[in-house]
Records
---
Amino acid sequence: MPFSANSVFQMLGRAGRPGLDSEGFGYLLAKNVDERDWIEDHYFQNAHTIEPYVPKYNDLISGLNKLNTLKEQVLLRIYEEKNITLDKLKEFFQKTYFWFSIKDKMSKEQIPIDQLLMIKEITPANILKLHSDTEKVKKLGVRRYQIKITKLTKSNVSGYIKTDFGVFFTEFDVDMGIRCSCGFENGLSNNYSNEQFSFEFCDHITAFLLHLIEIPDKNFQKYVEDIVPKSVKNQYVLNYLFEKGLIIKRDNGTIKCSQFGKLIIRLYLYPVSGVLIRYKLENAAIETYQDVIKEAYEVLKSEIKVRDYKLLQPILEWCDEEPLDDILERHKIMAGDLYTIKDNLERIITFIGIIAVHLSESDRDIAEAMVKVAEMSKTLKIRVHYGISEELFDLVLRLDNVARIRARILYNAGYHTATKVRRENPYVLNRKTGLGINLCKKIVGKK
Ligand SMILES: [Zn+2]
């Protein structure tokens, strides 16, 4: 959706500005001139001209438009309200920033609010309205491209579209989402953190969907009406939260958070990340430390905290006590990269451990396996943090001035516990380990 300064202004709380046209006018955001000036200075580049506003932060909408964030906000709302009705939730939606990103569309197109908010399943025709520019649809309706449907199954409808710029492959898939060979993608599974609540189809998808809707065959329409909404099912915020067991409907019709939903809120975790971690715990065979790291890395990849697998091997080597310089040189990475991924992994591993404990309490069948993962996560967090094997824990955690390298030297010289080191004469320690005498005195802790 193209950025309009008016929509920002409305987002800020519905304000008008003297000298602008009357769209979005008639409300006052700022209580007085000072407030208005403050808003202009902080949010717009050209605050003091008569031209339409130019926002200072380009990602103002895109940042607020993340589907992920919306799911989190709705879950948080339900959590805070304890018991909330659907009508109240609708009211809440109308106060969110997301509302403003689709409000313009709403006024032009007649889309029922339940469908728009993805509370009820949305029809293919309304999906087209919501995610395509009206003018474009009109033009495409007149200038017909050649379209060929090449696949129609219960879960997929796809085909080719021939334009002046070449042939494109477009696809609606229940599992993979919507894709086009031009690069457009609104997937269901991976890289979810960039998915937007309001987005625009590429021309090819728009033309293809228009074509699908207009095929008169009733039987064919049954497929379309089933597949197309499912291919955007992650957009249904409430449906998603219900389906993933984050919220529950009570007998009296109100909605409340499930235990898992509450846990997600308390952890400050994106619902989608929490669901992914739970899925991995329930489905992936997590048996070794490496497995935990790999799964945690996948979560980071979904959150787009990392782009590729370049840092996976280095972090595994770090945990196995490979010298830092060797790792950096071998993989041609910077120390900063490694430390950033290290911090992020620690965070995810902590969540894995906590969610594993939760699952061990709520699902007896996997309780034993979950307890094991929880224990592994606890250990692994320390390994990732210090870059050490488990046998060095006592030395690193309990001695001053001892990190991974010195701990290894001490250990290899026969000092396996902090107690043993502390009882040693610094001069003997110095002779046995080669560590400097002043350092040995500090480590032992005697003056
Ligand atoms: Zn395309």
Note: The two ends are 69 Å apart (CA to CA).
---
Amino acid sequence: MHLPRTAAAATTALIIIILTAADIQISTASPNQQLPNFTAVIIFGDSTVDTGNNNYLPDAVFRADHPPYGENFPTGQPTGRFSDGKLLPDFFASILGIKQLVPPFLHPNLSDSDIRTGVSFASAGTGYDDLTATIAQAISMDEQVELFEKYVVRLRSIMGDDAAKETVQGALVAVSAGANDFVYNYYDLMTRRLEFDLSGYQDFLLSKVQTLVKRIYNMGGRTIVVGGLPPIGCLPIQMTVELQNPLERRCVETQNLGSQSYNAKLKKLLAKLQSSLAGSRVAYSNVYDPLLEMITHPTKYGFVETKQGCCGSGLVEMAALCNAESPSCGKEMASNYVFWDSVHPTSTAYQILATNLSQQLASALSSASPPSS
Ligand SMILES: *[C@@H]1O[C@H](CO)[C@@H](O)[C@H](O)[C@H]1NC(C)=O
Ligand SMILES: *[C@@H]1O[C@H](CO)[C@@H](O)[C@H](O)[C@H]1NC(C)=O
Ligand SMILES: *[C@@H]1O[C@H](CO)[C@@H](O)[C@H](O)[C@H]1NC(C)=O
């Protein structure tokens, strides 16, 4: 199989939280907003949801298959996940009662049961803009859809056509991307600024989101959740790139405003797509507010440090956000940090985020009109 490599850049992600805080959030969840029984989880996107596909791309710029990544993973080993432990797809699959870990589709030894309950096609460094995937030598979104096609072929061979169709229709499909597009092509490398103003680039990316959602729908996906942008200006790497005085680091406000205006447009687009795609549920996932909440009120969630990652606040070298030269703050200390590296949340933060996002989803699905069939 030839994997197309595409695009670009760093990563994205966000969020934080502490177990105790997560427990509190769970206990306050509204009991009448329950999630349906999904058959599987199917994931598209960037490093926020790449559970290890880049391990199998020899030229990928961004990899997390080395220490200190994975220090708090159940095995204590790096897996390719860009954090100290589990990522959003893992927490989601677990909240939904499907499984504990979502494997990367490129893993060579996927069992039939792995396939039946869902996989991730995501690739660290990618984005909606093909230029982003090219810069990062990551799997572009078009290529992720091609992998989804291969996945469906295997699913059919395991279950038969009808059951495979039901599995895809009953799956939760989640998409998380976009931050790399802005970080690399707009804010830091500025490649796309020659062609687009901010609003124009947002619209360019949103046209890609629309195409992706329609392709997923045409392949049978019916519940599709698309994540918005995080507060990009609060990623430690963005504060570093702005050459801020280390003692006075603060979120880059204009970049946060850019995320907000993109998110407002995305939310509208997804509502429009839901009404035009019969029987679909297309939900917006607000990662901005819960992440910013953790950054703004860290102690509420047990966090101490919000402005640098547990293993660094810059780009160590092209291939690594953290490596042996940037040892972590210590695996027990990671839960004091919102960010694990200069871009990605700690697993603790992801867990808090996952709880919030699953509640958002339950509420979005309970208010949406049921699929017409
Ligand atoms: C989901 O499955 C469980 C166990 O099979 C069942 O008890 C429950 O009623 C189902 N919920 C929905 C919303 O279908
Ligand atoms: C896949 O299975 C083979 C044979 O059991 C084993 O040698 C290999 O290490 C496995 N690969 C992974 C990534 O687990
Ligand atoms: C998610 O987090 C945001 C920001 O803290 C909060 O306003 C919102 O109520 C939370 N949503 C849910 C469903 O917990």
Note: DSSP finds twelve helices and six strands in the chain.
